[in-house]
Write a structure and sequence with these properties.
The protein has 9 helices and 10 strands. It is globular. Strand 2 and strand 3 form a beta hairpin. It is an alpha+beta fold. Helix content is about 30%, strand content about 20%.
């Protein structure tokens, strides 16, 4: 799933390639992709793109003079494919992974694509991004200038749950998902199952530093990378996520995994859990 660093890199890319250009066609190709109907996608046609914003994991294309906005969430398997020259033949609905196509007046454009059978990619045409429920409920952006340690401590003060779940909660902190929560906890040297209520002031400081530095470094690695290469760039920067069985780059211990019904987490026992492997709950259920 694209998370804050990749969506921020896409925002940078689209800001450079879209602003000042006119949208000539918005073509939905998947029935499931549109989550709003008024205004229709055609309301964007003939409009000039004025800016591209990011809200957590949401991309927001704003048109000039207060016109409608195209807001999208790429979900787990969605992506943006850019074309310097759009194919002449339009795609056929249901015959490709393309969910929506946007064409520009200079022949360029992009497709929103989604792999797999679980269609969760979402597109909204709205006058205000706050009209999108997922945007309206977002917590603060962890890279915002005012997201200091005191604010972070205040957010955690009312929480009584595991750190992994807290970091992934979009209503608590916007933009962090499964991959970067693993990376943040590894950098902070904390167990994903550690409870928020047990954190000392020193641990809150360490976690805040890891949160900001991990995301900042990932954004910097992604900046300037073409949209088509961002997924590979994300994978290359991971130290524990997606690296089960490989040596930890910090201590050399073997990276372990805990599996759930629809996801998994990775961690280093030596760095994060005092050398103790965590129980794989899915495997434990199978052995009962």
């Amino acid at each position: 799933m694209p998370e804050l660093p990749e969506v921020e890199a896409l925002r940078d890319f689209l800001q450079d390639h879209l602003v000042g250009r006119e949208i000539t066609r918005v073509l939905p190709l998947a029935v499931s992709v549109l989550k709003t109907y008024d205004p229709p996608p055609s309301a964007l046609e003939g409009r000039t793109v004025a800016a591209v914003h990011r809200h957590g994991k949401f991309l927001d294309l704003a048109t000039a003079d207060g016109g409608p906005r195209l807001v999208t969430h790429l979900a787990r398997a969605g992506w943006l494919r850019w074309y310097d020259s759009l194919p002449v033949t339009p795609p056929r609905p249901g015959k490709s992974p393309i969910a929506l196509r946007v064409a520009l007046d200079d022949g360029q454009g992009f497709d929103l694509t989604e792999a797999g059978t679980q269609k969760r990619l979402a597109v909204y045409v709205v006058h205000d991004p706050a009209q999108v429920p997922g945007v309206a409920s977002l917590g603060p952006d962890p890279l915002a200038d005012d997201f200091d340690e005191a604010r972070f401590a205040g957010l955690l003060a009312g929480e009584r749950r595991q750190l992994k779940g807290a970091l992934r909660d979009q209503s608590l902190i916007a933009g962090v998902g499964n991959a970067y929560s693993d990376e943040i906890l590894h950098a902070a040297r904390m167990s994903p199952f550690k409870l928020t209520g047990s954190l000392t002031p020193e641990e809150i400081h360490r976690l805040h530093e890891a949160l900001r530095s991990t995301l900042t470094e990932a954004v910097e690695r992604s900046r300037g990378v073409a949209a088509g290469r961002l997924k590979a760039e994300k994978r290359s920067g991971m130290r524990v996520h997606g690296r089960t069985g490989e040596p930890c780059p910090v201590c050399g211990d073997t990276v372990r995994e805990v599996s759930f019904s629809d996801s998994s987490l990775q961690y280093c026992p030596t760095c994060q859990t005092g050398g103790r492997p965590l129980a794989d709950r899915r495997l434990s259920r199978l052995l009962k």
